[in-house]
Design a protein that fits this description.
The chain is an all-alpha fold. It has a domain of 60 residues: 434 Repressor (Amino-terminal Domain), CATH 1.10.260. The chain has five helices and no strands.
Length: 86
Amino acid sequence: MKDYVKAKKMIDVSVGESVRIIRELQELSQGELAELTGIPQSTISGIEHDRIKIGVERAKTLAKALHCHPAVLVFPGWEIKDSKAA
């Protein structure tokens, strides 16, 4: 781990942007994600454009469909402070 260099944060990503990015990386359309989750496509669009709050239950449902942890969607800019480095 001595050769590990932490990547520099280049941009801030919103919750909606994180949903869109992960969805697109998996080559899913909003409609396909809607079918997988039971969440209407219009709601997914609203989430991706940060007009609709994601909420805990939606985060769990989306995360399951997108094969990621809900925290990845809810806290996209979260940084874990290394307590050993302090």
